[in-house]
C-alpha cells in the first residue's frame, strides 16, 4: 500500500512569490482529503502566528481520512530531546502524526550544525524515540540523503537505521538538492531497502527535471511512502508533482493509493490549489492541464472523435479532465453533468440543456472566468441556464468615490441603488476600499429583507491581471471567498474594470450564501 504525503502547505509555500492565508490552507486541506491524500503536512507549529492559528483551527475540520501532520526537526545538539522546544511544540500541536528532518550528509553534520557524526546519530534516535513514546506516528526525513550516500554510504545508511531503531514509521530518502537521475535513485533505494529495518519513503525536488520520475522509480524499487506537492509547487524549481505521480501510480503501476472516484477529482483539486494560491495554472501540465488532452485541427483531431483512445495515453475523464479539439472546442458534457449533480442540479438526460450550459461555460472561460475555485458562481450560472434562478435583488446603479483625508487615511464611499421586488432602496457606506464600501452599502440596502446576510463574511479577496501586456486596460479576474460559520464558498467576476469584476463576485457570493441549503 502506497501512502501519499502532501507537503504543499509547507514545502510548497517555499515557492518564490507564493503565500497562503490560514483560510487558504484550511480549504486546501479539505480538498486534499476529498482527493484521498493520507497525510497532509500543515507547517511548523509555533514557528509563526499563521501556522499556530492553522494547527488550532484545523482540529475542527471533519476530515474523512487525511491525517494532518506537523513538521519539525531533530533535537538541538546541546539539549536533551525532552527539553528541546521544537520537539515540545510538535508534542503540543495536537497532531497524531509528525515529520522530523535530520542530517544524512556527513558534510552538513560537521560543517553546518557543528556536531560530530555520533552526536547526530544520537540526535536522530533521541528525537524519534521521544515522539514515538508519546504515541505519535513519526516520519523521519533524511535530508540530502542521496548526496550523503554518494559521499559516505555507510554513514547515510546509519542515520536512517538510527531512526528505524528508534521506531520511525517510515524513513524518507530526500533528494533535497534535486540533482539525482532516476537510475541513481532506483539503485540506491534497492540497496538501502536491504539495510534499513523500516518502510522507506521518497521526497524529491525537481532541479534536474526528474522529481516525478525519481519518485516513480523509487516506488518500483521499494518505497511505499511518497511525498510531494500539488502542481509541484516548492522552492527553486519545485517538488515532485503529486498531480502527475498519483495518476501514474494508479493508472500505470496498479497502485490503488486513491480510489477511481477520488482520482476523478484530480484536475479540480489541481486548479483549485492554483487559484487559491493565486498562481496561473499551467495549461501544459500533464494529466490536469487544459491542454493535456487538447488536439489541434486536422487529421489528428478528426480521428480523435472516432477513436479517442488511440490518441490519449489515459482517459481524460479518469483524472477529471476534458478532451477537446482546439478548432471546434469539443468538450465534456458528461463532466459538466457530473459536476452539476455534485452541486445539487440534476441535468439528467437533458442533453440540450447540458449543451447550452456547456456553451455558456466555454464562452465565459474564453473571456477569462475560471470556476475551479468558484463553485458558487458555477452553481448560480447553472441555475440561470436551467431556469431555476431568481435574483434576490436588482441593481439600478452604484457609484464609488475615493477620498484621501487630512489624517492620511484613504477611504472609499459607495452609493448603491437597488430594487427588492417593487421597492427601491438607496444606501451609502464607507469602506477602506471599493469592495468593502460596496459590500457595506449593499448590506444596508437589503439587510432588512435578508437577516441571514449578517452571518456572511468576505474572508478573502484576490485579483489577477489576465493579460499584463495591456497594462491598465487589461482584463482582471477577482476571486472572493466567503464564509457563514457553517461553510465556505468561492465566487468569481471578470471585467476590464476591477470594481465591476468585484461587484460580480460580490453579488454571486451574497446570493449563493442566502439561497444555499442550510
Quickly describe the structure.
By secondary structure, the protein is α/β, with parallel strands linked by helices.
Write out key terms for the chains shown.
518 residues, TIM Barrel, eight-stranded parallel barrel, 2 domains, alpha/beta, globular, 16 strands
Structure description:
By secondary structure, this protein is α/β, with parallel strands linked by helices. It folds into two domains: 3-258, Aldolase class I (TIM Barrel, Alpha-Beta Barrel), CATH 3.20.20.70; 394-515, 2-Layer Sandwich (Double Stranded RNA Binding Domain), CATH 3.30.160. It is built from 18 helices and 16 strands. The strands form four sheets. The chain has an eight-stranded parallel β-barrel with strand order 1-2-3-4-5-6-7-8, surrounded by nine helices. A three-stranded antiparallel sheet has the order 11-12-13, with helices on one face. Helix 1 runs antiparallel to helix 12 (266-276). The longest helix is centred in the C-terminal third of the chain and has 18 residues, at 498-515. Mean pLDDT is 89; it is low at 297-302 and 326-331.
Amino acid at each position: 500500500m502506497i501512502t501519499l504525503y502532501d507537503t504543499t502547505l509547507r514545502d510548497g509555500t517555499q515557492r518564490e512569490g507564493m503565500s497562503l492565508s490560514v483560510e487558504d490552507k484550511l480549504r486546501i486541506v479539505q480538498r486534499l482529503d476529498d482527493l484521498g491524500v493520507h497525510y497532509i503536512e500543515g507547517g511548523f507549529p509555533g514557528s509563526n502566528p499563521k501556522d499556530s492559528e492553522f494547527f488550532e483551527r484545523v482540529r475542527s475540520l471533519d476530515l474523512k481520512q487525511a491525517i494532518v501532520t506537523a513538521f519539525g526537526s531533530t533535537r538541538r545538539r546541546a539539549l536533551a530531546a525532552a527539553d528541546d522546544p521544537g520537539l515540545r511544540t510538535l508534542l503540543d500541536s495536537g497532531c497524531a502524526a509528525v515529520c522530523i528532518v535530520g542530517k544524512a550528509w556527513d558534510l552538513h553534520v560537521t560543517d553546518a550544525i557543528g556536531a560530530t557524526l555520533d552526536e547526530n546519530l544520537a540526535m536522530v534516535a533521541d528525537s524519534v524515540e521521544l515522539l514515538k513514546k508519546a504515541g505519535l506516528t513519526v516520519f523521519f526525513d533524511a535530508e540530502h540523503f542521496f548526496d550523503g550516500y554518494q559521499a559516505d554510504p555507510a554513514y547515510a545508511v546509519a542515520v536512517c537505521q538510527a531512526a528505524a531503531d528508534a521506531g520511525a514509521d517510515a524513513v524518507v530518502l530526500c533528494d533535497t538538492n534535486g540533482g539525482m537521475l532516476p537510475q541513481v535513485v532506483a539503485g540506491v533505494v534497492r540497496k538501502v531497502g536491504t539495510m534499513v529495518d523500516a518502510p522507506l519513503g521518497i521526497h524529491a525536488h525537481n532541479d534536474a527535471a526528474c522529481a516525478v520520475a525519481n519518485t516513480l522509480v523509487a516506488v518500483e524499487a521499494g518505497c511505499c511512502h511518497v511525498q510531494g506537492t500539488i502542481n509541484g509547487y516548492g522552492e527553486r524549481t519545485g517538488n515532485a508533482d503529486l498531480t502527475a505521480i498519483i495518476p501514474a501510480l494508479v493508472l500505470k503501476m496498479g497502485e490503488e493509493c486513491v480510489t477511481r472516484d477520488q482520482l476523478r477529482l484530480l484536475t479540480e483539486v489541481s486548479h483549485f490549489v492554483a487559484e487559491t494560491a493565486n498562481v496561473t495554472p499551467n495549461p501544459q501540465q500533464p494529466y490536469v492541464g487544459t491542454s493535456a488532452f487538447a488536439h489541434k485541427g486536422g487529421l489528428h483531431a478528426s480521428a480523435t472523435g472516432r477513436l479517442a483512445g488511440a490518441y490519449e495515453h489515459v482517459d481524460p475523464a479518469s483524472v477529471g479532465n476534458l478532451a477537446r479539439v482546439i478548432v471546434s472546442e469539443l468538450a465534456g458534457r458528461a463532466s459538466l453533468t457530473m459536476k452539476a449533480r455534485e452541486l445539487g442540479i440534476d441535468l439528467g438526460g437533458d442533453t440540450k440543456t447540458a449543451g447550452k450550459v456547456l456553451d455558456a461555460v466555454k464562452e465565459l472561460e474564453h473571456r477569462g472566468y475560471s470556476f475551479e475555485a468558484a463553485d458558487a458562481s458555477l452553481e448560480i450560472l447553472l441555475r440561470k441556464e436551467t431556469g431555476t434562478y431568481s435574483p434576490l435583488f436588482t441593481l439600478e446603479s452604484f457609484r464609488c468615490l475615493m477620498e484621501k483625508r487630512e489624517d492620511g487615511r484613504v477611504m472609499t464611499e459607495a452609493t448603491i441603488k437597488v430594487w427588492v421586488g417593487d421597492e427601491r432602496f438607496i444606501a451609502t457606506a464607507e469602506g477602506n476600499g471599493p469592495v468593502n464600501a460596496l459590500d457595506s452599502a449593499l448590506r444596508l440596502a437589503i439587510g432588512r429583507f435578508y437577516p441571514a446576510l449578517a452571518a456572511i463574511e468576505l474572508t478573502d479577496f484576490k485579483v489577477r491581471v489576465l493579460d499584463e501586456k495591456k497594462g491598465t486596460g487589461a482584463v482582471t479576474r477577482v476571486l472572493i471567498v466567503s464564509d457563514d460559520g457553517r461553510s465556505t464558498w468561492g465566487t468569481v467576476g471578470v471585467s476590464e474594470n476591477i470594481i465591476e469584476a468585484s461587484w460580480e463576485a460580490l453579488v454571486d457570493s451574497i446570493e449563493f450564501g442566502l439561497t444555499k441549503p442550510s
